[in-house]
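Write out this protein's structure.
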Amino acid sequence: MGIEISHLQRRFHQSIALDDVSLSIADGEFVALLGPSGSGKTSLLRILAGLDLPDAGSVERDGEDLLVLDARRRGVGLVFQHYALFPHMTVAQNVAFGLRVRPWRQRPRASAIKQRVEELLRRVELEHLSARYPAQLSGGQRQRVALARALAIQPRLLLLDEPFGALDAQVRVTLRRWLREFHRSLGITTLFVTHDQDEALEMADRVVVMNDGRIEQIGTPQDIHRHPATPFVSRFIARGQAIPVEVANGTLRALGRAWPIGGLADERIASIALHIRPQDIFPTQFHREGWQARVLNVRRVAGAVRVSLLLPGVEEPLEAEWNERELLGQAMAAGDAIDVQIQSLTVYGCDAQGRVVASKAFQPPQGASPITLGSWRRLEA
């Protein structure tokens, strides 16, 4: 059955940390909580770990109320960003700690603890370092010791609170690949908190995007990247950029053009927002009813070409990103006028409070052909 989180509320004085958060996590699933600082990720993690209580809402695991259990009885393993290892203990002693401090009636025999520690150190590939102290380890090794210590108690739920935040970029890449394979071998239900989009999209079965204490979108990494449900997710995940838009008398006006628009019958929709991603602006050698843009600057980074452009009807520069092949041998410099095509725009229908109720990605039509939004993706009321 897994874990069922329903309508959690948590407030600190005048600040809302969690605002009606509901989420289902299946047994053995790897879920990433993704969002900026202050979005509510760690507040949710602390409640699941038993380190805090919500003001309202419920958390159940396989039908059992998890909130009535203290932290020791929840069967939760917790790994922090800064390792939290005991500096005066060896690697083996750190891993064994959670078993050795159990009440004596629940404490395994010394031989069983030794066997469990050796097994875990083999799994995290550190058996040869069991006698070392934390100060004698690299950052990646310390984080694997912290993970082994969390697993020693055989948790039913593993919570990872930005575990790679203190590591350098190359170690992060290596360790997150290792952790994903490690999770697959164990099958423990895992909740992973991060503000790094690449980590979440690469590692998780599902991603939960949070902002201001609320869940903006839940989905697979592919779905969230390809179909961001709100302007915030578009900006945070897909680097979406807002385009000025007007809708009046059945006509959508944007990018210096006007198109008839249908499918706005949903009575909840009070306003429209329009977004474009950098990868959806393409250079062309021929006009083909595209747009003429002015190049503001060009940056070449590791095979990618990042270009700032001014398009008709848009006062702020838009970012485009291409690879060298997409330039088709074109020379390009600041001040040039180039022709571009737009592969996709995403339109968001918002209610009177500014919350998205429906969205749709579409390719701008040629000429004055109409835009029909009758099949757009609708969010629950």
